[in-house]
Amino acid sequence: MYSLWRNLHVSRAVISPVYRRTADYFSPRCGDGLGQCRHPSRKCSGRRYNVPPSAEFVARVSGIPTMAKLPFQETAAGLDAAFVGVPIDTGTSNRPGARFGPRQIRVESALLRSYNSGTRAAPYESIMVADIGDVNVNVYDLKDTCRRIRETYRQILATGCIPLTMGGDHTIAYPILQAVAEKHGPVGLVHVDAHADTSDVVLGEKIGHGTPFRRCVEEGLLDCKRVVQIGLRGTGYSPDSYEWSRAQGFRVVQAEECWFRSLAPLMAEVRAQMGSGPVYLSFDIDALDPGFAPGTGTPEIAGLTPIQGVEIIRGCRGLNLVGCDLVEVSPPYDTTGNTALTGANLLFEMLCVLPKVKYY
């Protein structure tokens, strides 16, 4: 992978002078159109940042698919935030395919641009970001995969970097939060999902994509009074599928409470609930209605809209976010790529609400 990126950087060096003059003249506010901040004095700090190449000068279909066409880096050293993939679906209970989620999200993310037109966020002018590849998972052993995830995230967090994770099924939230809590202590949780993921044992197993937050509570990884679950819905195994969540002190916002309304007022309440402590954001793509995001393993009808998903993430601005994930994208069930494209956009929205991101 490194050698391929080295070749890309070499190819950048031999771009024709005419092309370079054009790129200099039409370059974005803080980039050269090719991936680096060249004008630190122009509304930018003195630090050099990674800026994705602009599609005005570099075709989207060219290059190696990294998240948002950012540079690839082997480790999180020197980064404020990093996109990282966890390609597993060993913990799924219904349709598989989420192991291909990180790859397809990266492919579709070529459509992303550098600025958030809705909020005027400029992440690439304010924090150092790169794609650091995937966790080397064990597709034959879920428990070993959890160990590998936990160890990898310990290393990422030790550098001070905030991980933005592409799943992978929701099992991954458990080992990630183990590493996060080791560094930050019990954290608040904004959990966006069709399912509570608080089952105890499923088919004799305690680890899977339906159990991560039960395990997190048992291990003291969550500050339960600062947990909110948004978008829960569907048929259940009991009359009240969310009784356990409420008993722990979680705020439960069922999908029915979200129908036909903006979620901006809800998120004002969530910000007050979370306070200034560390917060983790976990977004299962199946929180969205399958009419918008069919490419997932456990779809439930009558879900959130993409607009509401964006409102939730933008509503996290100002929180002390220490990590985020976007999970359960299963490309085989959406051959249009739109579910992965939606996931890529939601991950960009997460990047935009991280601490220290600049807004115009």
Task: Summarize the SSE layout with pairings.
Layout lengths: L1 H12 L3 H10 L54 E6 L14 H8 L12 E2 L6 E6 L7 H17 L3 E6 L5 H12 L2 E6 L19 H7 L3 E11 L10 H6 L2 E4 L9 H11 L3 E7 L21 H9 L5 E8 L10 H15 L5 E2 L1
Parallel strand pairs: 1-3, 1-4, 4-9, 5-6, 5-8, 6-7, 8-9
Antiparallel strand pairs: 2-10
Helix pairs in contact: 3-10, 4-5, 5-6, 9-10
| Shape, principal axes of CA atoms | globular
- Strands side by side in the biggest sheet: 3-1-4-9-8-5-6-7
Structural class designation: alpha/beta
Q: How many helix segments?
A: 10
Helix content: 25-40%
The span between the termini is: 35 Å
Give an overview in words:
The protein has 360 residues and is an alpha/beta fold. The protein has ten helices and ten strands. The protein has helices spanning 2-13, 17-26, 101-108, 142-158, 173-184, 212-218, 243-248, 264-274, 306-314, 338-352; strands at 81-86, 121-122, 129-134, 162-167, 187-192, 222-232, 251-254, 278-284, 320-327, 358-359. Helix 4 packs parallel to helix 5, helix 5 (173-184) runs parallel beside helix 6 and helix 9 (306-314) runs parallel beside helix 10.
Keywords:
single chain; 360 residues; alpha/beta; two-stranded antiparallel sheet; 10 helices; 16% strand; globular
